[in-house]
Amino acid sequence: KHYVSTIVVVFGASGDLAHKKTFPALFQLFQAKLLPENFRIIGYARSLLERDVFVKKATSYIKAPADQVASFMEICEYMHGSYDNAEDFVKLRENIEAGEEKASSHKMERTSDNILKNRLRIYYMALPPSVFLPVSENVRKIVYNPEVENHLVVEKPFGFDQESSRVLNSQISKDWLEAEIFRTDHYLGKEMVKNIMALRFANTFYEAVWNKEHISNVQITFREPFGTEGRGGYFDQFGIIRDVMQNHLMQVLSILAMEQPASLNAEDVRDSKTAVLKCIPPIVLEETLLGQYTKSVDGTKPGYLDDDTVNKESNTPTFAEVAIHIDNDRWRGVPFIMKAAKAVDVAKVIVRIQFKDIEHSIIPKLARNELVIQISPEDKIYLKTIVKEPGLSSKLTLSDLNLSYSAVFDDSLIPEPYASLLLDVIGTDHSNFVRADELDEAWRIFTPILKRIENEKIVPLPYPYGSRGPEGESDFHIRFGHYKPRQL
Ligand code: BG6
Q1: Which of 6, 374, 480, 482 is found 20 to 30 A from 416 (Cα to Cα)?
Q2: Dmax of the chain from CA atoms?
Q3: Which atom of ligand 1 lies nearest, measured to the CA of 190?
Q4: Which is catalytic among the residues 151, 186, 248, 430?
């Protein structure tokens, strides 16, 4: 759709999310010339900042030549205002309207009667949950104009459990239409996550074996080599399950496991994702392994409880491994094992789809085929395949059919997840955003286990910073049918 003007208001413009993600993502789109004409960015936050201080902050994570950054900043301005004072929101509205007027007076389209409908306003909430609601209510009451297109961009945490998420959603949906809301999960903007649909539905040989007849188990693993450094206050309330599992990893699971959507249309895609989530019973404690990191073995890295912002008695897990079962005809009996770990040995987010053994094979069992989709740090897809070792012997070996993006494509073209998602917000494409019913289902699956962990004060197992995880980590997936190749 063509807009006469597009305005993005970044609330929380002096905060971390805005500097680290929102402004760099907008810059990436600007640099790639993907922003529509008459595009303006208004940073809004409480601090009184001189323009040069704002510019310094907003560009602190942008890596590009100074002249390009300077021309990007020409479309950015800063307004300070409170999050609860109506007058400040009136000023914001006047500022937005003045910009829109200017843009449309430049354009001959002004003659059109529905000129207002050709304006887009994006309200980007780079805000902590405590101020998100007052801001979105004030925007709706004071700034919102039903004659223009309004998009509200929000980010997790979307509540704390199923109940609080429902309360939050009902408060937001009093004011905003679902079609106006873009619930961001940045994993949906990652290249490899966006690629899963193409991989599954455009390749005969994957789709043909994508079921319980051929797949033994699926592992979705998130490992990070750092702890809560500086974020303990937030993390201690939420824990690893809420921080990455219920949202990021569950999104990956739903795209891996869903049925083929009726079309690529956003509602069809989200219908399919929601439908598969509905087939998943809540996770149980008996199929869960919890851990919390302690000081590194060499003593150089602090334990979780050494973080000053963490409660000294905290039982909050920084490691979790759970088994998820999907009760439908495609997946019945195929465990999806999800693991999320902070302060472990490596940085890696990876999906492993392990295939079943060939029945009655004449070849002795050596290993299983595995399709591996690496989401980060590098984008890769490889298929673990058994071949005969070259040479005169008939020895077998496990090798990789390897598609490493950096070797095959220009991987500098891979956008930042936030840039890709912002482009979808501008283009009104909801496919990669979380719908309310989908979110509710994800909470339904995780809320009982979270309640049990908290009510029964389950003590997580310790593991040293930089290790693989707590004791039992290496056997957990084996319990659910994962086959480790024997030493080759
Ligand atoms: C965030 C979590 O949502 O995702 C962080 O709050 C986590 O704790 C991050 O580190 C991981 O994202 P990425 O893109 O680095 O894999």
Answers
A1: 6
A2: 83
A3: 14
A4: 248
